[in-house]
Amino acid sequence: xxxxxxxxxxxxxxxxxxxxxxxxxxxxxxxxxxxxxxxxxxxxxxxxxxxxxxxxxxxxxxxxxxxxxxxxxxxxxxxxxxxxxxxxxxxxxxxxxxxxxxxxxxxxxxxxxxxxxxxxxxxxxxxxxxxxxxxxxxxxxxxxxxxxxxxxxxxxxxxxxxxxxxxxxxxxxxxxxxxxxxxxxxxxxxxxxxxxxxxxxxxxxxxxxxxxxxxxxxxxxxxxxxxxx
Length: 229
What we know:
2 helices; mainly beta; Jelly Rolls
């Protein structure tokens, strides 16, 4: 094979191996280019920090590390996570990726992993809130952790997460919105996707929970173009 064609082939293969290539609506899905454009939420319950890790990886040479630790003061909830906002004109079809959990110590009923897809839309389905959501409970929550009027929950696994291994997860967003909300929302202007480790409690607690959670090779886009899990 000519050298130029070989280099092009390798370049395409590397891109495809880090979260689905050009079909992926997420930028920097494998955290190979540092933190941007991933961010956290500027609310009290959210940790402002996350780490780009070069030792524990699923693909490529980096992942994102979320450290779940006891709150500094008694609290109803706490979240460690990363978020990305994507401008779209239609609801994406599919979300997937991989997570790994180490040093998991569960001290409250709802200590769990979650992926959230929020559709910002003018659809009447979102009247009053401006958005509707599907929340994927990946592991650690055996029941819905709380009630929220503009969100529906999907249980991927109700058991506590296993430790020391990478786990693939996936959800068909369009099918889940249609099943849970009765229709695929129209008039979508953007989506916000969260990848989280968190706890929730009906009363203020200061549990001695712990957990090191890693996400890698994340994907948002057509199901037919998603990386093989």
